[in-house]
Amino acid sequence: MQSYPSYLLENAVNQLSKLPGVGRKSALRLALHLLRQDSQQVNDFAQSILLLKNEVKYCKVCRNISDSDVCSICSDPKRDATTVCVVETIKEVMLIEETEQYKGLYHVLGGVISPMDGIKPSDLEIESLVDRVSKGEIKEIVFALSPTMEGDTTAYYIARKLQGSNVKMTTIARGISVGDELQYSDSVTLGRSILDRQEYKM
Amino acid sequence: MQSYPSYLLENAVNQLSKLPGVGRKSALRLALHLLRQDSQQVNDFAQSILLLKNEVKYCKVCRNISDSDVCSICSDPKRDATTVCVVETIKEVMLIEETEQYKGLYHVLGGVISPMDGIKPSDLEIESLVDRVSKGEIKEIVFALSPTMEGDTTAYYIARKLQGSNVKMTTIARGISVGDELQYSDSVTLGRSILDRQEYKM
C-alpha cells in the first residue's frame, strides 16, 4: 500500500487515476509532472477542462459538440443538407471528417442500444433524428455504426422508426480493410465482402 | 490534420496532450471521457489539480512535499533523526517508504547535477543539506541516487562539501536485483557486485 506524504497529492492521484487507461503509478507520475510546472500552466490546464465541461454546447440540430447553438458543420451552406450520417459519438464525426470524403451532415446518437449496459432507445438521440427526417428535407440516412450486435440493433431500430418516410437508408461499406492481407481477414468479413462484391473499375 | 468541432475541445486536447506519455489521440479520448462525466466529478478532478499545485507545501526540513510546514516523516518522533537519506525527488521518498526498511529521515535534492540539462548545484537543495549536517545531530548520510553519471557526480559533490564534518557517508548497495537471472545482468553491475561481495549469511 502506497503511503503519500501529502493528502493533496493523494487526492490528485486518486482523481487522475480515474482517467481511462491511467493506473495509480501513471497518476502519480502525472501529479508530480504537474507539480513541476509553473502555476500559470497548471491553472490553464485545469481551466481548459472546466471550460470544456461547463461551457461546451451541443448542436441543437445534430447533437455534435459545438461552441455555438448550431455547429459549424450544420451551419455550413456548402454541405449537403439532404444527406445525414448517423454515428455513435462525436469521435466518429471527427474520424469521418478527417477522411474528407463526406460532404453531408451528421446525427450523433450518443451511443448504441445495448440492453447489457442498460442503454435504451430513449437514452439516445433517436427521436430527434426522426423529427429531423419528418421535416422532409433529408433524402438519405447513412448508418455509420460499429459492425457489432449493438450497432446492427440500433440501425434496425432506427430503420423501423423511419419506415414509411420517403428517406433512402444506406450503411457504410463493410469489407476487407484497405491494405489488409486477405489471409488474415476473419471469415465473417470475408464472406460479407464477397456477398457485397462491387463492379471492378479499371 | 485533425479538425475539432469545438474550440473548447481543441483547447482541452492541447492541454491534455502536454501531459507526459499522452499523445493527441489519447488526449482526445481523455477529453471525451471527461465530457461524459457529470459536472461535479469534472469539477472535483480539476480542483484536485489546482489544490495540489497551489496549496501543497514543501517540508522546511527535508523539502519533501507536505500538507504542513514540517512533513509527517520529519515530525515523527519514532524516526531516527541521526540518519538522513539523500534522494533526487519525492518519488524516491515514496519508493523507499514503501519498502518499510528505512527508519531515518530524508533530504530531497530536487534533481541531480546535470550540465547537459543546465542543472547546477545551486539549483538543488544542497546548501540546505549542508546546513542540516552542520547542526551536528546527523551521524549518517545515505546516498540513494540513480547509478548514473549525474547521480555519481552529485554524490561526489555533496561528499566534498561535507568533508571535515563528522558525518559517515554511505550509499545504497548496488548489485544483482533480487529475482534477476545472473545470465541477463549487465557486466558493470555484475562486476560491481563481485567487488562489493558480502559475507554469506546462512
Give a description of the structure.
- The structure is a homodimer of 202-residue chains.
- Chain A has 202 residues and is α/β, with parallel strands linked by helices.
- Chain A is 40% helix and 12% strand.
- The first copy, chain A, is built from 7 helices and 6 strands.
- In chain A, the strands form 2 sheets. Chain A has a 4-stranded parallel beta sheet with strand order 4-3-5-6. A two-stranded antiparallel sheet of chain A has the order 1-2.
- In chain A, helix 1 packs across helix 2.
- The longest helix of chain A is centred in the N-terminal third of the chain and has 17 residues.
- Chain A is globular.
- Chains A and B meet through helix 1, helix 2, helix 3, strand 2 and helix 4 of A and helix 1, helix 2, helix 3, strand 2 and helix 4 of B.
Largest sheet of chain A: 4 strands, parallel
Uncertain stretches of 5 or more adjacent residues of chain A: none
Shape of chain A: globular
Gyration radius of chain A, to the nearest Å? 22 Å
Distance between the termini of chain A: 65 Å
Mean pLDDT of chain A: 90
Helix content of chain A: 40-55%
Give the beta-strand count of chain A.
Answer: 6
Largest interface: A-B, 59 and 59 residues
Tally of individual helices of chain A: 7
Q: Strand-and-helix sequence of chain A, N→C?
A: HHHEEEHEHEHEH
Strand content of chain A: 5-15%
Spatial sequence of strands, sheet with the most strands of chain A: 4-3-5-6
- Looking at how many chains there are and whether they match, the oligomeric state comes to homodimer
Structural class of chain A: alpha/beta
